[in-house]
Amino acid sequence: MTSLDDFVIQDGILTAYKGYGGIVTVPDGVTKIGRYAFAQAGPERVLLPESVTEIGYQAFAQCTSLLRIDLPAGLNKLSIKAFWQCTALKSIVIPEGVTTLNQQLFSGCSRLSQITIPDSVTKIESNAFAQCEQLFEVRLPAGLTHLARAAFEDCADLSEITIPEGITELSHGLFSGCHSLSSVTLPKGLKKIGEAAFLNCSNLTELSIPEGLEEIGRIAFANCVRLARVTLPDGLKKLGLGAFGHCKRLREITVPESVTEWEHEIFNECSALEQVRLPSHLTQLPWHLFLRCEHLADLQADGVPLSELPDSLCKRAAAVNFARRTVEGEVFPEDRREEFTKYIRSQRKRLAPLAAQSPELRQFMTAEHIEGSK
What we know:
By secondary structure, the chain is of the alpha/beta class. It has helices at 312-327, 334-346, 348-357, 359-367, and strands at 7-10, 13-17, 22-25, 32-33, 43-47, 54-55, 68-70, 77-78, 91-93, 100-101, 114-116, 123-124, 146-147, 160-162, 169-170, 183-185, 192-193, 206-208, 215-216, 229-231, 238-239, 252-254, 261-262, 275-277, 298-300.
């Protein structure tokens, strides 16, 4: 049973808990749980009075036996790391009146599986739920305007998320390591998908990106090994380093004409990538754009001279694209046609296996009387 002797209280602030754990009832009249007040203590359940309006810095940090805490209706502030590494805590309801979920608030709460976030919350700060490995269900409030970096990093069981329309940027590492994440709904008005936002989301298979997005940051979707389909919207301006690196099931991609900023290795090791459409204004491929994309078979890069394509794989894929479009009736500038025809003729033996798989390439080679077409 809790005794007043278990607490140190000064001017309504509970500054220290000296008890032995179990069920702890905080006395009426306490208005704030102070810094480190219960840190590393052993309560299994904490009953807070309605008078409490604030929980201070690391107030319950590393309370590894804490199974349940009922937050009072009048609570309006949860400070940084208030429940950091409460590894036994399974669920919690945040009361209306709280507007910010602070940095590392529930970080490391490895058994936290359910949380109720009220509509009053407008900000979720960095690492607020990082390493909440069993968190599988989160409803973000409609009025949310700020989602800070790594807020849900390594939430391995999180399977779906809907981002509300007030969010214009997905920050660094926001859902990195969310291995179960398979359904993501992105909002209208989103301008940027930040660095590593979906890094290592290995169960993500498909993504619809809204119109208006301007930037996809570095390694934003790297190691999304099941991502098979993504549509890049018109208006996109920038693709960051390794943005889709190691997306091993991605089969085709069309980069819109609006993209003018390119970093390196964007599709690095997309081993299933077969068909690519690049903007016509692109005059040189970024460094290692298709590194180890060994199945690339149809590359449209009309602004890049054939001689400037970085390797034989890209050249052969561009030749297939040229042959297919020519057979379909598209007319190329004479110098472009001459360049490709000369290349196909010079590489006829190496292209013969491709011609066996590509009717259009075979048809073009036959029409041009290029030996090796059979």
